[in-house]
Structure formats: structure tokens, C-alpha cells
Automatic annotation (TrEMBL):
The chain crosses the membrane at residues 6-25, 70-89, 110-132, 183-211. It holds the Pfam family DUF599. This is DUF599 family protein. The keyword Membrane applies. Keywords: Membrane, Transmembrane, Transmembrane helix. The keyword Cell cycle does not apply.
Amino acid sequence: MNNYLLDLIAVTCFFSCWIGYARFARKKAKNTNCIARCLHQHRIHWMYQLLGREVRVAEAALLANLERNITFFASTTMLVLAGVLTLFAQVERLEAVIASIPMTAPPVHMLIQFKLGILTLIFVMAFFQFTWSMRQYGFLNVMVGATPVDKSGQDAQLKAYALQMAIVQDRAAHAYNYGLRSYYFSMAVLGWFFHPLLFIVSSLVVVYTLYRREFKSRAVQAITQGMLIFDEREQAKGAEH
């Protein structure tokens, strides 16, 4: 009974970490410079620049590259799902492997199946996020193709249209990010196969890793500085006019 109680605590901790971090990151991004907030500003600037270009081969190539990355993860997720589903037929062998590792919790047949079920659910969710991201990039391609040229940069309606394109791209990037987070948290679930305490520690480590990379990494600092440079440049242009 104590072992099952520890498993229950570990699962509660896992979902609290995942859901809690998602809400925390979404709220904090509204008033703190981070990858999501700063990249959105870069996307807006990108779409504004797109308005003045007659030839948009560079945009097409960049968007195609982003879609290829997402397609890779979507197809990889299907392969991972196939592997996890195959393990349902090899539970006894998996139990033997876990039991042979020192300091692991005694494997329980039904609990092993439940853990595999959690992994399956995570990768199904990741697949949905990746495919939704792909579809939204497809929507963005259509909007880019329909965008008229405005070399003056003074058309307010086209600027509003460019902002909507940036929003669609931002939504696609968020779906991609959610899919990647699923991969991160699936790594934490692997620790559960060995011991519930390792599962708890892994969940906390994943949250710490995500926080550092999305809010405190050097990449975030560079992206933030780039955003500030663009802001200063736009302010200088406005002062000249």
C-alpha cells in the first residue's frame, strides 16, 4: 500500500509540474522577456519587412525549413508510439529487465501497463501538437502568398494584416513548443519505471531545465538584445519623421 501511495504522489507531482509550468510560463511571458515573448516581436518585424519585398523566396525557404523540423518530430513521434505500443506485448520481459537493475522498485504487472499507457498518452498529445503546428504553418504560407507588396510601408491595413500573419506563426510555434515539452516530460516518465522517487526528481529536473532554457539561457539574452535593438531603431526612425 505504501508503494502505491508513493506512486500516486509521484504521478500527482508529475502532472502538477507539467500543468503548473505551462500556466506559469504563459503568465510570465506576458510581462517578462523570454523566448516566446521576444520571438513574437521578431516575427512581427519579419512580417512587416515581408510587405516591402516583391520576391519572397527567402521567406518561402525559411518557412519550409521550419515545417521540415516539425515534420521530422511528427514522424518520429509515430515511430516512438509504435515502439511503446509494442512494449505492451513484452511486459513480462520488461519486468525482468527492471527487476535485474539494483535499487529499483519491485515491478508490478498492472502498474507497468499503466506507465506505458501514460507514455502512449504523452506521445499522442505530442503528435497532435506537431501536426497542428504543421497545419498552421500551411495557413501562414497561404497568407504570405496572398500578401500584396507595399514598398512605402505606410499602408495601415497591410500592417494590420502583417500582424495577423505574425500571430498565426506565433500560434504555430507555440504548438511546436508544446510538442517538444511532451518529449521533455516523457523523459521524466522513464524514471518512473525504476523508482517513484526518481520519477519525482526527474519531473522537477525537467521543469528546472525548461525554465532555464526559456527564461535564463544565453540564447534568450541574445534574442532579447536583438529585440531591443530593433525597438531603438524604430524609435529613431520615428523621431526622424
